[in-house]
Structure formats: structure tokens, C-alpha cells
């Protein structure tokens, strides 16, 4: 397997936040190849722009000891959808969620995580079944202008999203590979990449039936990056409000022309979500 970057930003008491920081070695020695991208002034997520939580009120920041390390989407007042690689090996008592804020480090409401429902078949070596649900302290969050919930495909296993369909990605991740996180929420638009093109980029054995891909083929420049892990990829045009079809999972670097971003295919996990949203 080639070196892979799980799109996750892990903070600890021993890691300082700076553009000079070296990202920690991730599960099975996934490393970030060194390459800088010209993201342009004000562009975060990589190729995105600043936005307000009122436009994407389902987005939350997942905190470890008070510091951002992943994103997630509100499924209900006390459930958050995120990636399994964000929860693997972690305990609920170390985690909390900031909801209802355009910023990952201020405003909004902080809610304690009291449980982790990680997919039992999550596989670290392949990043397959990369989905988890966080159980939040109940009675804290209530729907409003800055708090809302995602919907998800309810037909179960099915076809991949239409190639070229525009999707919305949001998060506070880095501007470049190994760069600085964004203080304010960022948003970008990316099109779905066909399964055949994604397999051609990564190799057919790397892209399982539980993964979908998005990006701008042969152009790049727009993508999720470190710190965006666990956040949602939603269809831009959908008859269903806040319709989430992907979870930010992994990729080779960030926004590279030859490598689209890889996302967990939410449609394959209808039963898992419904079993754990109760």
C-alpha cells in the first residue's frame, strides 16, 4: 500500500499548533508526503472560503481535551455522525463537541460526549467502514438558527452518487498539507468522481464498496485536509434537506490533481445509523 494521509488533525499536550509543526504519525504509519499548495489568501479547507454556521448548522467541531481534532455532523440533539478513525482508541470522557458556532475554539455550546458507537468492522489497515456515532449528553442542544440535523440515504445499499454531482464540504481543517487550521468555518464545492476514475488513481484494491470519491480530476486545488476528518459531504442539489452522502475519510495528501478525496459512503450504513440513533 502506498503512503496514505488520514485526513485527521490530532492535538495533544505535547503538540504545539504552528505552521512549522510536524504532523504525528497516524495509524499504520500513514504519513503526509511533503508538498506545498498555493491556496491563495483567505482560502482554507484548501480552495474554500469562510462561511457562517447559520448556513451549515449541522456542522460541529469534535474536541479532545478542548482542542479541535475532527469534525462531525449532527444527526439529532444527542447524536453526531463522524469517522471511525476519529474515535478509534479514544474514550468518550476525553471528548466533547462544540455546536452552533462558526469557530472551533469559541462561542456556541460545548456538549460532553458520553458514548462512542464505532462501527464494529472498522479496519485500520484499509480504513474501511470508517463511520462512528457519538452519543452526547442529552438535553443540551435544541434546534434553532445555528443547530440543525443532517438527513441520510434511507434506501440502504445502492448505486454510487451521480458522477459530476456537486457536493458541499465544510470544516476547520488546514489550508495545505501540514499547514495551519482555520479559525472560522470554511466551505467548498467538489464534484463526485466516478468509481472507475477513483480506482484508477488509487488502485482498485484501495477503494472498497464502502467508499466514494470527490474532487476535480487532473486539476485539484479543492479538497478537505487535516482537521476536516469526520465532517460531512452533502449533496448541493437535493430534494431532501441537509442530505449527507459522505464522511471525510482519507486521501493521498490534500487537493492533489491526481488524487481525489475519499469519503465513507453513508448509503451503505443505513442500518448502522438507525440502530445507533435511538
Structural key phrases:
278 residues; Thrombin, subunit H; six-stranded antiparallel barrel; six-stranded antiparallel β-barrel; 7% helix
- Within the largest sheet, what's the order of strands? 9-10-11-14-13-12
* CATH homologous superfamily assignment of the largest domain: Trypsin-like serine proteases
Number of domains: 2
Shape assignment: globular
Uncertain runs are: 7-44
Q: What is the CATH T-level topology of the largest domain?
A: Thrombin, subunit H
Residue share in helices?
A: under 10%
The H/E string reads EEEEEHEEEEEHEEEEH
User: In whole angstroms, how far apart are the ends?
Assistant: 38 Å
Main beta sheet: 6 strands, antiparallel, barrel
Structural class: mainly beta
The average pLDDT is 84
Q: Radius of gyration from the CA trace?
A: 17 Å
Residue fraction in strands: 25-35%
Can you tell me the CATH architecture of the largest domain?
Beta Barrel
Find the count of extended strands (DSSP E, 2+ residues): 14
Amino acid at each position: 500500500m502506498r503512503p496514505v494521509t488520514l485526513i485527521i488533525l490530532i492535538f495533544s499536550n505535547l503538540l504545539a499548533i504552528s505552521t512549522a509543526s510536524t504532523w504525528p504519525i497516524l495509524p499504520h504509519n500513514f504519513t503526509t508526503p511533503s508538498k506545498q499548495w498555493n491556496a491563495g489568501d483567505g482560502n482554507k479547507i484548501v480552495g474554500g472560503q469562510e462561511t457562517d454556521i447559520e448556513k451549515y448548522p449541522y456542522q460541529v467541531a469534535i474536541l479532545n481535551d478542548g482542542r479541535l481534532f475532527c469534525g462531525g455532523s449532527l444527526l439529532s440533539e444527542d447524536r453526531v455522525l463522524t469517522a471511525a478513525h476519529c474515535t478509534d482508541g479514544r474514550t468518550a470522557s476525553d471528548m466533547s463537541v462544540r455546536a452552533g458556532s462558526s469557530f472551533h475554539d469559541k462561542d456556541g455550546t460545548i456538549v460532553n460526549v458520553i458514548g462512542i458507537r464505532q462501527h464494529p468492522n472498522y479496519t485500520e489497515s484499509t480504513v474501511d467502514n470508517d463511520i462512528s456515532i457519538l452519543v452526547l449528553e442529552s438535553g443540551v442542544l435544541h434546534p434553532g438558527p445555528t443547530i440543525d440535523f443532517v438527513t441520510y440515504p434511507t434506501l440502504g445499499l445502492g448505486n454510487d452518487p451521480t458522477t459530476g454531482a456537486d457536493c458541499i464540504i465544510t470544516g476547520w481543517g488546514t489550508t495545505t498539507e501540514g499547514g495551519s487550521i482555520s479559525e472560522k468555518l470554511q466551505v467548498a464545492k467538489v464534484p463526485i468522481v466516478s468509481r472507475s476514475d477513483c480506482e484508477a488513481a488509487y488502485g482498485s484494491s484501495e477503494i472498497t464498496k464502502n467508499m466514494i470519491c470527490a474532487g476535480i480530476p487532473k486539476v485539484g486545488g479543492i479538497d478537505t485536509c487535516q482537521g476536516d476528518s469526520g465532517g460531512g459531504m452533502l449533496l448541493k442539489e437535493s430534494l431532501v434537506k441537509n442530505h449527507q452522502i459522505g464522511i471525510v475519510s482519507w486521501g493521498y495528501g490534500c487537493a492533489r490533481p491526481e488524487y481525489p478525496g475519499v469519503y465513507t459512503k453513508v448509503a451503505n450504513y443505513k442500518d448502522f445509523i438507525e440502530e445507533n440513533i435511538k
